[in-house]
Amino acid sequence: MGKHAGFEKLVADAKKHITEISPQDAAAKSQSGEAVIVDVREKDEWDEEHILNATHLSRGTIELAIEQQVPDTNAMIICHCGGGGRSALAADSLQKMGYKNVRSMAGGFKAWKAAGLPTTK
Fold first, then answer.
1. Catalytic residue positions?
2. What are the tens digits of pLDDT across the range 11-21?
3. How far apart are CA 37 and CA 4, in angstroms?
4. pTM of the full predicted structure?
5. Which of 2, 6, 24, 62 fits 57 for a cystine, CB–CB 3.0-4.6 Å?
6. How does the average pLDDT of the chain come out, rounded?
7. Average pLDDT over residues 41-55
8. In this model, does residue 43 exceed pLDDT 70?
9. 3-state secondary structure the chain
């Protein structure tokens, strides 16, 4: 257990309750209009580089802002962060709010970039 042991435990617990999706599947669902990709990273991370057509709702504000941004609780929402931890927590939280089709992108932004998928600045 490293210095983020408590965080890792929270994430591992959240991952038991949520569904992960690959970056490739996330890209396909976003392109088809089937899903909205929500970037839960901090504003400075978003400003540096982000996924084309994603929506930015940082981890701190997602629960407050999601209902205005995505009022339909049946809509597919794919959360992503840098590496897949924060998005798992966000996805778990949205499910508790009654969203039925939430996904967390496995591997986060790192995996998206590694797959050669489109980003923008």
1. 79
2. 999 999 999 99
3. 26
4. 0.95
5. 62
6. 96
7. 96
8. yes
9. CCCCHHHHHHHHHHHCCCEEECHHHHHHHHHCCCEEEEECCCHHHHHHCEECCCEECCCCCHHHHHHHHCCCCCCEEEEECCCCHHHHHHHHHHHHCCCCEEEEECCHHHHHHHCCCCEEC
